Amino acid sequence: MQYNDLIKPESACEDAHCPYHGSLRVHGRRFEGVVESAKAHKTAAVSWTRFRRLKKYDRFLKEKTKVLAHNPECINAKAGDRVVVYETRPISRWKRFVIVRKL
């Protein structure tokens, strides 16, 4: 884990699923992406692109990954923001990531 990502935000929150002010621990993979939508309550859709090699044709495919991430009140990422997300325990049925900071 890169601890330089875990810089406490200036504002505080009462969120239990906040990695800074709550009891949620982050672990696993780290991704940088763009917030596509932040309309749901404390949830943001974050996407990033990656390239996959097709060995047969000796070319690369551009693929997009989209996940739902928990958006704590102290971070409050909006659509279009570049963010860092970390993997965590399941928060709800679809959320397995949490936004750690804005870039």
Structural class: mainly beta
What is the distance, rounded to the nearest whole angstrom, between the alpha carbons of the first and last residues?
Answer: 17 Å
Beta-strand proportion: over 45%
Order of helices and strands: EEEEE
* Number of E strands: 5
Strand order of the largest sheet: 1-2-3-5-4
**Number of discrete helical segments:** 0
Broad CATH class: Mainly Beta
Q: Determine the fraction of residues in helical runs and give it as a percent range.
A: under 10%
Average pLDDT taken over every residue: 92
Name of the CATH architecture:
Beta Barrel
The poorly predicted ranges are none
CATH topology: OB fold (Dihydrolipoamide Acetyltransferase, E2P)
